[in-house]
Amino acid sequence: MSPLLDIENLRVTFPTRQGEFEAVRGVSFTLGRERLGIVGESGSGKSMTGRAILRLIRPPGRIEADRMELDGRDMLGMSEKQMQGVRGQKISMVMQDPKFSLNPVMRIGEQIIEIYRFHTKAPRKAAWAKAIEMLEAVSIRDPERVMRAYPHEMSGGMGQRIMIAMMLVTEPEILIADEPTSALDVSVQSSVLTIIDKLVRERGMGLIFISHDLNLVASFCDRVLIMYAGRIVEVCEAGKLHEATHPYTRGLLNSLPRLDAPQHRLQALTRDPAWSLDPSVSGRK
Amino acid sequence: MSDLEFNDLNVWFGEDHDRVDAVRNASFTVPSGASFGLVGESGSGKSTILRALVGLIPTWSGSIRVGGVELGKKRARGFFKDVQMVFQDPYASLHPRHSVDAVLGETLKLHGFDDIDRRIGKLLADVGLGPAFRFRYPHQLSGGQRQRVAVARALAPEPSVLLLDEPTSALDVSVQAEVLNLLADLRQQRQLTYLMVSHNLAVVAHMCDEIAVMQNGEIVEVMGVKEMRALQPVHPYTRHLLESSMGYKPVEDLAAVK
What we know:
The complex is a heterodimer of chains A (285) and B (258). By secondary structure, chain A is of the alpha/beta class. Chain A folds into two domains: 1-89 and 174-180 and 209-258 and 271-285, Rossmann fold (3-Layer(aba) Sandwich), CATH 3.40.50.300; 91-171, no CATH class. Helices cover 34% and strands 24% of the residues of chain A. Chain A has ten helices and eleven strands. In chain A, the strands form two sheets. Chain A has a six-stranded mixed β-sheet, sandwiched between helices. In chain A, strands 1, 2, 4, 5 and 6 form a five-stranded antiparallel β-sheet that branches. In chain A, helix 4 (108-120) crosses helix 5 (124-137), helix 5 crosses helix 7 and helix 7 (156-168) runs parallel beside helix 8. Chain A is globular, with a radius of gyration of 19 Å. Chain B has 258 residues and is α/β, with parallel strands linked by helices. Chain B has one domain: Rossmann fold (3-Layer(aba) Sandwich). Chain B is 36% helix and 25% strand. Chain B contains ten helices and ten strands. Chain B has a six-stranded mixed β-sheet with strand order 6-7-8-3-9-10, sandwiched between helices. In chain B, strand 1 (4-13) and strand 2 form a beta hairpin. The radius of gyration of chain B is 19 Å and the shape is globular. Chains A and B meet through helix 8 and helix 9 of A and helix 7, helix 8, helix 9 and helix 10 of B.
């Protein structure tokens, strides 16, 4: 089966006064109909990779790649107009905090309808019905009331579910979730993840799940890319993350306090400068 | 050394029908030299207890005792020498235009120390920062280094009680390990009493001896770390929290979740 997304040697560069800074340095991976996790610390380039896929890096930042294909179509050569047909319709993105990604002065229903009609040109009435259906799909009780509510009336978990509903209303092929549950409480976290999981499986979508939480990714995804300093240092099956071999991955795993295994001291991560020099591991299948 | 004793603590915001009871009838004690954790979700009132203790919220009733002394409406100057707080976000809690030297120097001066120069050097060494960091500004420091400065500032008046409000939730896991190790070492060296707030149960289990679980402003369960590690909570809410912190598990009844 050909992959949904095929990326080879992706680079994101920002010019600074001290010369060029490469936030992402030669990352290659493919995405099929699977749940792909990207983990790493802040500054490792994981969010930049997600944004680069949607070409959301503003100049003077630059995106370069040997190959960046969506269903076999080259994305780097697309015009801005063509990209608008990709963003939201083919590839959607859920950001970290719903407080900042929902428009505070627009009713929730209007926001969902706007995005749906932008991509499908459907009549208002059909869009309203579709929005209600999506809100039901993310397990929101009383969707009629929520449609007329403003974002500040919603809790964090509800807000994030609304974001997911909004992002999936156009039935995209790929969902990029950038730390979708980091701003949420642990108990709400599992319900939001269950919803993402269910929709991704039912619709046969590809999911890129960006997170800094190793345990979460290990239990939620199928395959994991571990990023360090703009490169992929290791690729492994999510279920086998705890058997990872790269010293960086091991270091991250060992620095976590664990409920089931008390330690007297936590292991601090000692960084080896050689890690950032090693070539990026390919996550292509 | 000081022990903490909370009895029937109530904290509220607003008046009459706008009144919100953020903490209701909270009672617990932290023995001197112990480390006590408060866990719960956002809005459960855990940080509010810390803020009421240091006097940041005037609307509370009940009794709070520090080292056997009942706290009144106003905190004496000596109180702040004895009780210090480390805040959640080192990006927000340090003044962007004050150097590390100014931050620590100001605190020391306020508390009436005179050998300030020597003390700043010692404080920086104690939190694992070299003298090279002394004249830096917060933007020249990483998140972990900033939190070390915040810890150094809290240690400056030589307190016996440290209140930790989510001290590592803004940090990466590798940096979190360093800061937690530092806090554990400092507690041992200085016989400090810790009252720590966190939503991360693994962090609290690592740092604390005893834990209070809060929900909607009430303490639903106080338990030892052993019981928690054995996953033997009494209250269903605690079980729910413990299960959710163990990684992803699909929720069966989505409609039942708020």
